[in-house]
Structure formats: C-alpha cells, structure tokens
Amino acid sequence: MTHMLGFELNNVAECELFLMPEIYAEANAFRVSDVLVSRIPFSDWHLIEKSRYTDDLADVYAHRSPPYFCIFAEPSLSSQADVAASMRTMRIAKVRVLTLALRLTTDLAVPVVDPCDFVSYQRRGHDVARTVSRRGRAGYELRPRVDVGELVDDWARAYEALTFLSSFRRRGRLALALELYFESASDFITDDTSQLLLHAALEALCGSSVGRLAEVRWGDEGVSDSIRSRRIRRNRLAHGVRSDWSSDSVALRRVAGWALIESVRQELTTPSGDGSLDAGLIDALKDADEFGVARLRVLPVDEERLLYGAFGRHNAEAD
What we know:
Distance between the termini: 43 Å
Number of helices: 11
Structural class: alpha+beta
Largest sheet: 6 strands, antiparallel
C-alpha cells in the first residue's frame, strides 16, 4: 500500500466522490490500480455536503475515523455537458468494478455495500452537485468493518483483471454471471432471491456441466456440502419454497466467487477461452491446487503480456 496524505478538493478543478463506508486502513489514502481511495479533511467535506446535514453527520468526523471515498479528479474543467455526463457514466462503471473486485477478494458472508447506492458528490469549480441514490446518506451510519490494508494488492489485481476482461475479451455468459453475482449482494433483495441469483451465476458459467461441480475437491466442507445439495435447494427456491439454509448462503457465495475467479483467469490466459465455461471450467477447477483470489496472483501484470502472451505460447506450441 502506498501511504498518502488525505485528498484535498481545492487542489483540482473537478472531482467526483463516492462514499465507501465499510472499509478502513492505516493509510489516509491509497490507490487501487488507477483509482484513488482516500479520506478527505472535514473542512473539504463540509464544503460539498448540504449545510442542513453537516451538524448531524459531523459526529462521523468527531467521534470515529473519517470515512473513505473513491475519488476521481481532473486538473481542468470540460465545458461540454456531454463530456461531463460521459465521465460520470465511466466513473460509476469503475466503482462497480472496484466493488465487485473487493467482494471477490474479501469472500465475506455479508458482502461490502455498493458505493453507488449512497450519496455521491461532484464538484466543478465552485459548483457542487449531489446525487442521492437509493440509500441516500445512510452510509454514514455504517461502521467500518473491512480492513483493506493487507488486501490492496489482491484487490488491485482483481480490479485490473476485471477491467482488462471488459476491454479486451469476449464476455457473454461470463459477463452475465458476474452481473448476477454482483446483484446477489444487493441490500434490496431477500436472502432467497440472493441465493437464486448465485445459483443462476453458477449455471451461466457451467451450463449443462453444473452437476460436475461435485467432482471438484474444494477443500472446504461447507462448500462441498453446498454443492452436493445444490440441485435440490435450487429447485426448491425456484418453486417458491423459502430457504431454511441461511448458513448455506455463505458457502454458495464462496463457491460462486471461486468459480468466477477461475473463469476470469482462464478467459485471460487461454487464447480460445475453452477453460472459462462449461466442461472446460470444471476441468480447470479440478486441476486447481487453490481457489479464490490467489488464482489471479499468477496473471501477468502488464497489458501487453495479457494481450499477446497467451497467443504467443499457443503459436509456439503449434510450430
């Protein structure tokens, strides 16, 4: 982790901030790949928040550690409205990928919240705009619970892998599975719906080979039990029978995350992508000696090797 001073809004002409209330670290600011995550001084936060809220929310700064924000900044202003709108769309997409990467990295029973569900702030010159999403300012009431200090490298690797996948690889069913996994963590759905989305993510990845997940040696008793009873539980949920396996939701989320990570890894490292879906993915999982974000640590760190390295190996083997 790179230690930095807290971000100061007055140093840039334009910036946009998304609240990340559940994380904490020793550093006031750090980068996850190309994204800045930082606390901001109370004096700056006071300038971007509406005055009628500042007295109540000031307790966050007075009695506990200031929250982190995902921050995007530009040294100069664009006068074109369409450019500003396009930048916001791009930033929201980045925040969602950053959130998905952290969810895959942390493997929590209760995944971290989506910053896009809370209030966000955009400052352009002296003008401040606030976008109040579904949960408004409720994020300030959440307590930090995820220490990301030791996770930044893995978080960055997962974020870069997902970003590269989106830019340079076919996505199709893998993209669908990632979206289902992301939405399964929403605060606005029931646990039963969340489990259905996780089952759907696994089926999107594995297709007709989903039953073969039982052939994988997971090294986790909870995951193995979850896979053995997967079909029964999935069918009961699909027919409206409420789940009484609340503890199984944790194992189901874990195995879906592991399968997604392996699929992403195969898609990035195999020219044909044959190992990213269906029977090929099952075989890759069976051959793996570990699961989770550790599978991404062996990926090349630069885009050129990801773009051409696998194809080079493929051609060399053909010769």
